[in-house]
Each structure stands twice: as C-alpha cells, then as structure tokens.
Amino acid sequence: MRFKNYKNSHSNDNRIYSKQEMLDLSIRELKDRADEFVAQYKVLGLPNEEELKNSSNVIWIDEYTKDEGTKVKGHWRSKPGESNSDANNTAKSSQMDNTDDSEDLTERQKYKESEEYKKEYREREKQKSIERKDPEEIAGVKRGEPKTFYEMMQQGVNPMYQSQEDSSGQYSTNCQSCNVACELLMRGYDVEAESYENPVTYELAKIDNSAYLDSITGKKCIPEEINLQEVNCAKYIDETINVGERYEFSYCITPEKNNYSATEAHTVFMTRMNNGKLLIYDGQNGEIAYDKTETKSYIDSRVNDDNTVYFPRLLRVDDKKVNPYYTDKVVRASGKSRKH
User: Helix count (H) and strand count (E) of the chain?
Assistant: First the structure.
C-alpha cells in the first residue's frame, strides 16, 4: 500500500518528506539532503500534508530533542511492514486485495475481474495480436496466454527491486524496461524487466517510447506532449484514456528540454479498467493509483509544480507494433537467472 514499508534508498531511513515540509527547508538543508529527496521522489514523489494525514500507513513523530541537545522537527515516517525483499511482491497484490484487517476495503480492493471478463479479454487480445503482427517470440520467450491488467500487476515485472542483489540500484532506475515488460505480459509474453546496467535499457532511457513502432507506417512512435500551459495534466489524461486502452505516461524534470544530462525522468503504465476507473501502475516499484482522486493526486504531485520545468508525454501502446531492437533486449524470461 502507498507509503507502507517505504525506505529511502539513499539514507536507508523511513522518513517521508511532504511537499510543504520541503518548501519550509533552508537552501542549505535542501542542498545537504538533495540525494535523499531525489531517492524519495523516484518512489513516492512529493505527497502533500493532506494525503499523509489521511493515510493509515504513516505515523507522525512529534518534535523532540536528542541526548546531545540537537532538536529534531516533527515529521512523517512510514509504518513498517514486511521485509524489503518481500516489498515488491506485496505491492503487486496487497494493494488489490484485503490483506490489512485494520483498514476498510477500498473501492479498488473490492474490484475483481470475472472469469467471463478474463475470457473476453484474452479473445480480444489474441485478435489484436494478429492485427499488430506480434512476433511469435520476444527475448527468447514464446507468446502464450495474454494476462489482464490485474494479473500482470499481481505477477509483477521487476522482482529485483530493492532486493539484496540490487545494491547498486540498477533495478530502481529501470522504469523504461518495466513499462515494456508490463505491455508484453499483457500480450502473452512471460517476461520481466532487465536492469538499468543493460546497455540497451540505458539507451531506451534516453530515447523513451522507442520500443514501439506505428502499426501502419512502421516508423518510430512520437508521443503526445501535454502542454501544461493550456491544460491540467490529470484532467487531460482522464479525458483521453478510454476503457481497455493502455498508455505509457512519461515526464522529466529538467531546466532544458533537450538536455537529458540534467534530467530526472520517470515513466509509468496507465489504463482505464473495464469498470471505467483510471489506473496508474508503476511497474518499477509496484505503486498503484486508482480512480480519479488517486490518479489526480499522483499526477499533480509530480508534474504540476510551477517551480520546475516538466515535459509530460503520453503514448498509447496497445495498438502499436513492438520494435525488436529494444524489446528483445530490455526484458528477459520471468525468473531467469539475474547473474549477468
């Protein structure tokens, strides 16, 4: 669940900074903690105080003074849960099922895919696979039974995230490969994401959306850039995505549009479920935002900050051909040995 068992990959601490708290920090404090803030941003973004107050997965620590006399301001901390090695697997399922008796079932936890829907989905996806001319095999994995969105999330695509084997953080910066793995699982390829140290994954990060080709022209896809001066990003996305469509939503934080060396970027997977609810899934860390309120909060916390330059982009992918140069290299068979 959002915020639960969070641990900052830089500080190894479970403190969570809100947007308001960061605005109150001095310039010196901001510089001193920059790496810590970036690590949190990649996983949680910058939640506002209201979101934290309304969450049962965080606790507030009142201001206190250490033995040596140092004052520590009041702050939020994540509630502990399962061990980090299990966190990603839990994120894929506990957010969708009632695994916490202390909380009421949310609307997204009540939602279940019927067997009839699963059957209809697989039939539709198999027909779309023929129309897209999907290859029989990707990354050495033969095409099999397509997975629904919930089945894909429950399996997950990034099992090495924050594991003991990920000491260098290569599975905490591979969001571009995670998105591709999400889409391929839903097409019937049983794959998971490669790490960021994979050279083609690194290349894809610099020219995102290149894993897909236009189904008609066969040319590289050009994502739609969302002009924040003209529209509200969350509202635009909510009005754009139709039931059953699947999208990559990417954004970067940069002082210069084409200066990728100065960019912090991220990309997540989106769809509108058959019950009409918009859903955001971060395949990298298992985070989920469901329905209009949660998705709006998720997007607003990341791309609607007037003090930063953002370039949000949206690309529909379920109707695209795959680009084998990338898809054969940025994913691998699920459960394959992680040793390179």
Answer: 13, 17
What is d(CA 168, CA 165) in angstroms, rounded to the nearest whole number?
A: 8
Residue position matching structure tokens 């793995």: 181
280-292 residue pLDDT tens: 999 998 889 988 8
CB 90 within 8 A of CB 96: no
Structure tokens at 142: 């033969």
CA separation for the pair 249, 245 (Å, rounded): 13
The answer to whether the beta carbons of residues 110 and 149 sit under 8 Å apart is no
Domain ranges of the chain: 15-81, 107-333
Query: For residue 96, what pLDDT is reported?
Result: 46
Q: What residues does 264 pair with on adjacent strands?
A: 253
**Tens-place pLDDT, residues 33-56:** 888 888 888 788 888 888 888 888
Phi, psi of 260 (to 5 degrees): -70, -20
Report pLDDT for 62.
Answer: 79
Beta strands 15-16 and 71-72, pairing class: unpaired
For 286, the enclosing helix (H) or strand (E) is: none
Distance of alpha carbon 204 from alpha carbon 176, whole angstroms: 7
Q: Give every CB contact of residue 159 below 8 A, 6+ residues apart in sequence.
A: 88, 89, 192
Tokens 């290859």 identify what position? 135
Strand partners, 138: 141
Read off the pTM: 0.68
Q: Cα–Cα distance between 129 and 136 in angstroms, integer?
A: 10
Cβ contacts of residue 232 below 8 Å, gap of 6+?
304
pLDDT confidence of residue 306: 56
